[in-house]
Design a protein that fits this description.
Chain lengths: 415, 310
């Protein structure tokens, strides 16, 4: 008996030592993402990281974006999941961070957090405990992308005021060019259109008033902006109520429309589909000259560490690497997507323009502030703007519906 | 002979039976019964993503059926399911019956048509959805192009973007996809009718309408039972065609929302608009399941009663 036990113990100890040395020689981190299209970039970055950190290898796995959250939360709920996780921001971060699946990050374990602006860290912060749970990876701005060649041929310059925008659209339409490629059949496109076209008319003060409860969504600034949107929709893609997101993208990428109100993330995609496009961007037009021109910004998501990971130190090392200006520079220049890290060097002129515009912005309001509870501000804005643009309700009605929905849970509106 | 099957079955035979019966039962239990029971249990809890919170009793069910936020969405979707059920009953099953009768009479080329009518059923629903989405594109889809070519410009519409036509367009796409199935089942039912009966009726001088109404329709009752029950279940579980053609939101502004879409976005979240609530999703799934089981059973019992033995 004693002998067998001793043998067993020796064997166990031996295998423990053996596995211990093996682990010391090589720590394998798993890293999950929904960015299938960026796989080559990530593999390249991982190679650079591994060269600097011998002993750590990173295995990169991607999943389809529409299933990512489900697959990830299932794995996490089962006590598993990858060591390093690409997570979303705001409300979708909370569903994963609140149950304690993610390791809180601070200036001790990730000193590189100092490289980020406050608003970027806020996107990856849990409202209930004020802790940061991920290193942000991309800044997105809702604005207007325009086709420089079409503008030049029509003798136009990017409009600054709303009246100039309407005049430019009229000029283009008279020349038989579709002014805006946008369509409203895909619900979430209505939210991006509002962000791209109306931000300057809403303004930072409006956002501050919404947050403090001094104003709500029946505010004249919001109603009037919606009315302007209804007005400009006559210049959208023909039959725009039936034009879905991919069709509108194709229309613009084919060079058959002059403008596209939407996200800065569209630019790289347009260029990929049609490299000959010469593109520019401008912020939402202002109501009267002298007003502040704004874009609506938000942060896509971040890189987080699994709280149950066996390799937390290695995972933190990797996440710190993903927070360096060198990484941000490579991210921005390779993916043509703006990294929020301060001190990056941007090569691409149009990304430089986006970065400059993003410096002066309001939040992409519904995502940043009202996508935590149901009915989310996004659901309300998307369906009510869609309905308004289809001519089935007035801007006043749309604003009232949006306000009513948010007021069911938003304390400052309940006074 | 007389005794053999009164004896206890041999062990070998019992093992053989177990061998055949246990795997499917285990499979069904694991992949059907267990998920349904667990969804039922999940519905009684509060959820943070997929992490289970505290027990909340019937709160989720109350919210789904009567809550200020959820109930209007659920009832709106439910009405669309009912609408789809009625429309598909007429178009898909009714149309299938008519097509089956035409094929039954073996017109010229019936062998070809018998296959042609079934081909769309074999296609993947995802492909059919995308295909019809292209057909219905307002600017280059063949539906509007055909209308322009015929000079019917005023009939052309943004079909999937207009709240008055979008649901109808989904129903027609679904009917196009599946009409081959009722056609085939009815055709088989008609071919089971002894030809003497139809001949006798013909000799008695019935016209086509009387023959269909008084002879064929009652005698294909078993096919009707199957088709109506399956359509009932299918209409309330309707998901793929709406998901592919109008997206998770039931665009435009909820006019094509059905319970399957509501369930999916509630339970798993809609990346571009809302976050997930697994408790509410489970409660909705449970209610939908109970509704389908109860009504499908009642429907089946009622339809069975009108079947005639011959």
């Amino acid at each position: 008996m004693k002998l067998t036990r001793r043998i067993l113990m020796a064997a166990a100890a031996g295998s423990f030592l053996f596995s211990g040395t093996a682990a010391m020689a090589q720590t394998e981190l798993s890293f999950w993402s929904w960015r299938q299209e960026d796989k080559a970039f990530y593999q390249d970055m991982i190679k650079q990281f591994q060269e600097k950190n011998p002993g750590i290898t990173v295995k990169f796995e991607t999943f389809a974006p529409e299933n990512y959250q489900t697959i990830l939360s299932t794995a996490l709920a089962a006590g598993r999941g990858p060591d390093v996780i690409q997570v979303r921001a705001y409300g979708n971060l909370e569903t994963i961070a609140t149950p304690g699946y993610l390791l809180p990050l601070d200036k001790q374990n990730v000193p590189e957090l100092a490289n980020f602006p406050e608003s970027a860290l806020a996107a990856e912060t849990l409202r209930s405990d004020g802790k940061v749970y991920a290193v942000p990876f991309a800044t997105q701005a809702q604005l207007v992308v325009y086709n420089k060649k079409i503008f030049q041929d029509a003798g136009l310059t990017p409009p600054k005021t709303w009246d100039e925008l309407m005049k430019a659209a009229e000029t283009l339409k008279a020349k038989n060019i579709t002014p805006f490629a946008n369509g409203t059949a895909t619900a979430w496109q209505n939210e991006t259109i509002v962000g791209g076209l109306l931000s300057s008319m809403l303004g930072k003060d409006f956002e501050a008033d919404i947050v403090s409860g001094k104003a709500n969504f029946t505010d004249p600034r919001f109603v009037n902006a919606l009315a302007k949107l209804k007005d400009v929709s006559q210049y959208f893609s023909p039959n725009f109520t039936g034009v879905d997101y991919p069709s509108s993208q194709q229309l613009f990428a084919a060079g058959r429309a002059a403008m596209f109100a939407g996200g800065s993330y569209e630019i790289a995609n347009f260029k990929k589909q049609n490299p000959s496009l010469d593109l520019g961007v401008f912020p939402a037009p202002v109501l009267k000259a002298g007003d502040q021109a704004l874009v609506a910004t938000y942060y896509d998501g971040g890189y987080a560490v699994n709280a149950k990971s066996d390799n937390k130190d290695a995972a933190l090392k990797f996440v710190r690497f993903l927070a360096t200006p060198e990484y941000g520079t490579a991210f921005t220049n390779t993916l043509k997507n703006l990294s929020p890290i301060k001190g990056i060097k941007i090569e691409d002129p149009i990304t430089q323009e986006v970065a400059k515009l993003a410096d002066n912005s309001m939040s992409y309001l519904m995502l940043v502030r009202f996508r935590y509870q149901e009915p989310s501000g996004s659901v309300l804005l998307q369906s009510n703007v869609q309905k308004m643009l289809a001519g089935q309700q007035t801007p006043e009605q749309a604003a009232a519906e949006i306000n009513k929905g948010i007021a069911t849970y938003y304390k400052p509106f309940q006074k | 002979m007389l005794v053999s099957h009164k004896q206890a079955p041999s062990l070998k035979r019992q093992l053989w039976v177990a061998f055949l019966v246990v795997p499917p039962i285990a499979f069904m239990s694991l992949f059907v019964v267990y998920p349904i029971l667990s969804a039922f249990a999940y519905a009684f809890y509060d959820w943070q993503g997929l992490a289970r919170g505290e027990f909340v009793g019937l709160k989720n069910f109350r919210e789904v059926l009567f809550g200020a936020t959820m109930a209007p969405v659920v009832w709106n979707a439910f009405l669309h399911n009912v609408y789809a059920l009625i429309a598909l009953m007429v178009i898909q099953n009714g149309g299938g019956f008519v097509l089956a009768w035409l094929l039954y009479k073996e017109p010229f080329g019936f062998r070809f048509h018998r296959i042609a009518v079934f081909v769309p059923v074999v296609l993947s629903t995802i492909i059919v959805g995308f295909l019809w989405k292209l057909f219905l594109n307002p600017n280059f889809g063949i539906v509007n192009q055909a209308l322009y070519a015929l000079g019917l410009d005023s009939w052309a519409k943004p079909w999937l973007g207009d709240s008055s036509t979008a649901l109808g367009a989904l129903i027609l796409a679904n009917a196009w996809h599946f009409i081959g199935f009722p056609t085939l089942v009815y055709l088989a039912g008609m071919q089971r009718i002894p030809p003497e009966i139809i001949e006798a009726a013909r000799l008695d001088g019935t016209n086509e309408w009387q023959l269909l109404k008084n002879i064929v329709w009652p005698l294909v009752a078993p096919s009707t039972t199957i088709l109506f029950t399956l359509l009932f279940i299918g209409a309330f579980n309707w998901f793929e065609i709406p998901y592919v053609m109008v997206g998770l939101d039931g665009s435009p502004f909820g006019s094509t929302d059905v319970l399957g879409l509501v369930f999916y976005r509630t339970a798993f979240g809609n990346q571009s608009a809302s976050i997930q609530n697994f408790g509410l999703g489970s409660a909705l799934a449970t209610l939908l399941f109970l509704f389908i089981v109860v009504f499908a059973s009642m429907l089946t019992l009622w339809l069975r009663r009108r079947e005639i033995q011959f």
